[in-house]
Amino acid sequence: MGDILDIIKSRRTIKNFLPKYVDWNKVSKILDAARHAPSSGNIQDWRFIVILEPSLKHAVAKACYEQYEIAQAGVLIVVVSDTEKVERYYGMRGERLYAIQNCAAAIENMLLEAHSLGLGTRWIGGFDEEELRTLLRMQAHIRPQAVIAVGYPKDIPDKPQKFPLESVVYFNAWRNRHRDPAKYMQDVAVVLQRKAQATSESLGKLKDAIVDKAKEKFSKKETDDNEER
Description:
Layout: H1 4-10, E1 17-18, H2 24-35, E2 46-51, H3 54-63, E3 75-82, H4 83-116, E4 120-124, H5 129-135, E5 142-153, H6 181-228
Antiparallel strand pairs: 1-5, 2-3, 3-5, 4-5
């Protein structure tokens, strides 16, 4: 199995798409990847509205603050959340946070699967929510979270700059860094290994004690039985 990190690093946000048909088999794989994402309590509150009609894609693009270039994509997928369902289980925190997190996890799966299939994607979070809701006839408790454009890239952008790993990782507390994380992790591993070994030895001694006690009890019972005969 290849390292998924290669797919993650090579994925790009595509601005312009070729007006080219996307096979449904590929679209279904992207949607299948989405539904296998983790969600709070496995509630799976996400739903996916697939837009194929050119006129409707154009209307969705208009609702996305006139980002008309996405109408050239083979398909638009509107990711929505059933906020009523999330709130029923998790209250306000579910509606305001978990619903967003769950859909974001599903979206990331979609982006990576699409890239692995030779397609490009664009994650759009800027849109007129009420306009999009009306356009796609959503009920009050269904909230659009994102519009994902999927298609064949017209061009591939250069790799964007990313912060180095050491500047975004802290250990045990905010802004707490280690100059040699590998050594730190190795030291932690040694400590954990010692604790595991000590626990194993304790369990071994406990097991021996239980076995000895059982043998002693069995031997005493055998002696008592012989005396009764």
